[in-house]
Amino acid sequence: MPGLPGEPIVRIRDLHKSFGDNHVLRGIDFEVSQGEVVCVIGPSGSGKSTLLRCINLLEQPHPDSSVVVHGVELNDPDCDIDTARRHIGMVFQQFNLFPHKSVLANCTVAQETVLGRRGSEAREVARMNLDRVGLSEKRDAVPAQLSGGQQQRVAIARALSMDPSLMLFDEPTSALDPELVGEVLTVMRRLAEDGMTMIVVTHEMAFAREVADRVVFMDGGVIVEQGRPDDVVGNPTEPRTREFLQRVLDPTHVTPE
Fold first, then answer.
1. Alpha helices of the chain — where are they, by DSSP H?
2. Cα 162 to Cα 245: distance, rounded to the nearest angstrom
3. Strand partners, 32
4. pTM of the model
5. Each residue of 152-168: pLDDT tens digit?
6. What element of type H or E holds 224?
7. Which end of the chain has fewer CB atoms at under 10 Å, N or C?
8. Contacting residues for 196 by C-beta, under 8 A, at least 6 apart
9. 37-41 vs 66-69, strand pairing mode
10. Rounded to whole angstroms, how far apart are CA atoms 54 and 139?
């Protein structure tokens, strides 16, 4: 799904999303360039995950909202969303692996059914991506034999096996024990170094500051502040951003009444 030269991979205009009376996204304007790593931070309920899910239409935005990926308007009723999604990989909080299938099979099912790849080719691509996430030796295991961190790395390999040009990560470490977080972040760091375009919803501030090209702070369904990681995380200008970061970086912090 090639876009025009120099065009942002993602271009969002006036994005609104409601669930009943709950107006979750309130006019988001947002762009992501080729090879850019954008980390989206903010308190629970701020709309971060909903923004991510609107980018591949897992959630349907308001009709007047514009969600363009690779030059294609995904919110157009005539858009072939299945074709559009082939270029977008997504990794969720939960791993969503098939429990009865091997690691290798988990990474080949979508290739065969969606991309139409033959079994031998799909297995070769899966092996390459399992090696990429450091799990070559686990290809014959089933998910129950893996740690949470390993299962999430399989989920990343599964997404990469679809050859995406854009990867979306929705708090990929939030379901992991603290000692397993690092192995997943290491894989994501390598993807960034390889030039993968990534939008990452995360509470891992050290990762955002080290890996992101840009940090976006959301609250109340709007983008409050965005910019270079050292500016937004290290020296935020907006009071709401400062208050959030004080709470995240110092859990004992109590905002004065």
1. 48-55, 81-85, 103-106, 109-110, 119-132, 148-160, 178-193, 205-211, 229-232, 239-249
2. 35
3. 10
4. 0.93
5. 999 999 999 999 999 99
6. strand 222-227
7. C
8. 35, 37, 167
9. unpaired
10. 32
